[in-house]
Amino acid sequence: MKKEFLKGLWNQHPVFRQLLGMCPTLAVTTSAKNGLSMGLAVVFVLFFSSLVVALIKQIVPHQVRIAVYTVIIATFVTIVDTFMRAQFPAISQALGPYLPLIIVNCIILGRCEAFASKNGVAVSLLDALGMGLGFTWGLFVLGSVREFFGTGSILSIRIMPAGYDPLVAMILPAGAFLVLGLLVALMNRIEEWKS
Fold first, then answer.
1. DSSP conformation letters of 44-107
2. Per residue in 79-113, is it b (16+ CB within 10 Å) or e — as a string?
3. What's this model's pTM, rounded to 2 decimal places?
4. How many CB atoms sit inside 10 A of residue 175's CB?
5. Containing H/E element for 186?
6. N or C: which terminal CB in the chain sees fewer CB atoms within 10 Å?
């Protein structure tokens, strides 16, 4: 059980190992807050979608399983999108169309198809939580690095001195690719040092 939870946090990390969910990863991580918000939305959707899929897997005909999983995921995405728009309109606007696009995020559909539909409820929930939290910390770190170099702050808290000349490229799409590549390389290096 512990292994199922921990695999998403490091060994099978969705962002830095499997390179899944790259569209929201690169698009919304202009700040740590945006990355954290998107990550938490994915945790919610993945957790509850995996719960429902694990509960109904025996009664869903094989031919329509993907369509059924997509409807389940879309239901939870609609819930989180409506909640974000009502309670956190600024964050919802910052995430833009990428929040509703969670419906087709390969992390969620992939985990429902490859794991929740083949395992029990408890193991599926641990897998979903581990993958979701792994995705969240990946987006948070990526957003923090980009925000730090791009604005001199993290979570809108000024870190760099007043005279800091921000690297504006870091909050542009090119900065997302650069930081992602460096973080993937760092994670691979850490894995080499461990072994």
1. HHHHHHHHHHHHHTTTS-GGGHHHHHHHHHHHHHHHHHHHHHHH-HHHHHHHGGGTGGGGG-HH
2. ebbeebeeeeeebbebbeebbeebbebebbbebbe
3. 0.93
4. 21
5. helix 173-194
6. C
Domain count for the chain: 1
What amino acid is encoded at 73 in this protein?
I
Single-letter code of the amino acid located at 52: V
Q: Report the alpha-carbon distance of residue 50 to residue 37 in Å, rounded.
A: 20
Instruction: Determine the structural domain holding residue 61 and report its residue range.
Output: 2-194
Q: Pull the structure tokens for residue 46.
A: 């993945």
The residue assigned the tokens 């985990």 is 111
The 10s digit of each residue's pLDDT in 72-107 is: 999 999 999 999 999 999 999 999 999 998 888 888
Please give the pLDDT value at position 44. 97
